[in-house]
C-alpha cells in the first residue's frame, strides 16, 4: 500500500545516502585523528595547538551538522501532525532568521494578505519550520552582503503557496538540475542536505517544492501545502 511504498522509498534514499555519509564523516574524523596525533607527539608551542583545536572544533561542528540533519531524515515516522496557522509558523521563522540576516544587512519581509491570516495547514510544526529556516538560510547565504528577502503567501486551488524570493547570485541552469541531490553544495561549509531534507518533509506533508532561478538576479523557492479545512 501507499504507506509501505513511501517507507520503502525512504529506506532506499537512506541506503543510497549511506555510502556518501560514510565518506563525508570519515574525512573530518581522519583530520581530527591527525591533529590529535600531532598534539600528542609535538613539543610545539601553545600557539600551534590552539590552531589545531580551532580546526578540530570546526571539523566536529561539521560532523554534528551532518549527523543532526540525517537524524531528521531518518525519523520519518515521528511526524507529529497538528492543525496550525501558516501565518504563525512563518512569523516565528522570520523572527528567527532575521537575527542572522541583520548581520549581513539583509531585510526579510513577510507579506500575508489579511484574508489568509486564518489559513491552516496540517503539519509537524517543527519540521515545517525547519524547511523554511533551511530555505531562508540559503537565501541569506546567496545574497551575502545586502538586499531583501520577500516571503509572500497566496492561495491556489486548495493549496497555500509560500514564495521565498531572494536577490542573490542565482543558480546556473546546469546546477539547478543537481539541486536536492545528496551532498550537492557550492559552499565551503555546506552539506548539500538542506534541500534534500526539505523536499522530503514537504512531500510528507502532501506538498510540493519548486525552484526557479536566474543567474545574477535571484532565486524563488515556491512551496505548496494543502490547506487544512
Ligand atoms: P547547502 O546550503 O549546505 O549547500 P542545500 O541543500 O541547502 O545545501 O543547497 C544546495 C545548493 O543549492 C547550495 O550549495 C547552493 O549552491 C544552491 N542553492 C540553494 N538555495 C539557493 C539560493 N537561494 N540561491 C542560490 N543558490 C542556492
Ligand atoms: Mg542550505
The succession of helices and strands, N to C, reads HHEHEEHEEHHEE
Q: What is the 3D shape?
A: globular
Terminal CA distance: 26 Å
Strand percent estimate: 15-25%
Count of alpha and pi helical runs? 6
For the largest beta sheet, what order do the strands appear in spatially?
2-4-5-7-6
- Ranges with pLDDT <50 over ≥5 residues? none
Structural class label: alpha+beta
Characterize the largest beta sheet: strand count, sense, and whether it forms a barrel. 5 strands, mixed
Total beta strand runs: 7
Q: Mean pLDDT across all residues, rounded?
A: 85
Bound molecules: adenosine-5'-diphosphate, magnesium ion
Query: What helical percentage do the residues reach?
Result: 40-55%
Radius of gyration from the CA trace? 20 Å
Notes on the protein architecture:
The protein is of the alpha+beta class and 229 residues long. The chain has six helices and seven strands. It has helices at residues 2-41, 46-73, 86-102, 125-143, 173-176, 194-204; strands at residues 82-85, 106-111, 120-123, 147-156, 159-165, 208-214, 218-226. The strands form two sheets. A five-stranded mixed sheet has the order 2-4-5-7-6. Strand 4 (147-156) and strand 5 (159-165) form a beta hairpin. Helix 2 (46-73) packs parallel to helix 6. The longest helix has 40 residues, at 2-41. The radius of gyration is 20 Å and the shape is globular. The two termini are 26 Å apart. The relative contact order is 0.13. The chain binds adenosine-5'-diphosphate (ADP) and magnesium ion. Residues 134, 138-139, 142, 166, 168-171, 179, 184-187, 190-195, 219 line the site of adenosine-5'-diphosphate.
Amino acid at each position: 500500500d501507499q504507506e509501505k511504498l513511501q517507507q520503502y522509498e525512504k529506506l532506499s534514499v537512506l541506503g543510497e545516502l549511506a555510502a556518501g555519509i560514510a565518506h563525508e564523516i570519515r574525512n573530518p574524523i581522519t583530520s581530527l585523528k591527525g591533529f590529535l596525533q600531532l598534539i600528542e607527539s609535538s613539543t610545539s608551542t601553545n600557539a600551534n595547538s590552539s590552531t589545531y583545536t580551532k580546526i578540530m572544533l570546526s571539523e566536529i561542528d561539521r560532523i554534528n551538522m551532518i549527523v543532526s540533519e540525517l537524524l531528521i531524515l531518518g525519523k520519518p515516522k515521528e511526524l507529529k501532525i497538528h492543525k496550525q496557522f501558516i501565518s504563525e509558523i512563518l512569523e516565528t521563522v522570520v523572527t528567527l532568521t532575521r537575527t542572522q540576516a541583520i548581520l549581513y544587512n539583509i531585510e526579510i519581509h513577510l507579506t500575508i494578505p489579511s484574508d489568509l491570516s486564518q489559513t491552516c495547514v496540517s503539519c509537524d510544526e517543527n519540521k515545517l519550520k525547519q524547511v523554511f529556516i533551511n530555505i531562508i538560510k540559503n537565501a541569506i547565504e546567496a545574497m551575502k552582503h545586502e538586499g531583501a528577502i520577500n516571503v509572500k503567501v497566496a492561495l491556489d486551488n486548495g493549496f497555500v503557496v509560500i514564495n521565498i524570493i531572494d536577490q542573490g547570485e542565482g543558480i546556473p541552469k546546469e546546477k539547478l538540475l543537481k539541486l536536492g541531490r545528496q551532498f550537492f553544495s557550492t559552499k565551503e561549509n555546506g552539506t548539500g542536505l538542506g534541500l534534500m531534507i526539505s523536499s522530503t518533509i514537504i512531500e510528507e506533508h502532501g506538498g510540493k517544492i519548486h525552484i526557479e532561478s536566474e543567474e545574477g538576479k535571484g532565486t524563488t523557492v515556491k512551496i505548496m501545502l494543502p490547506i487544512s479545512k
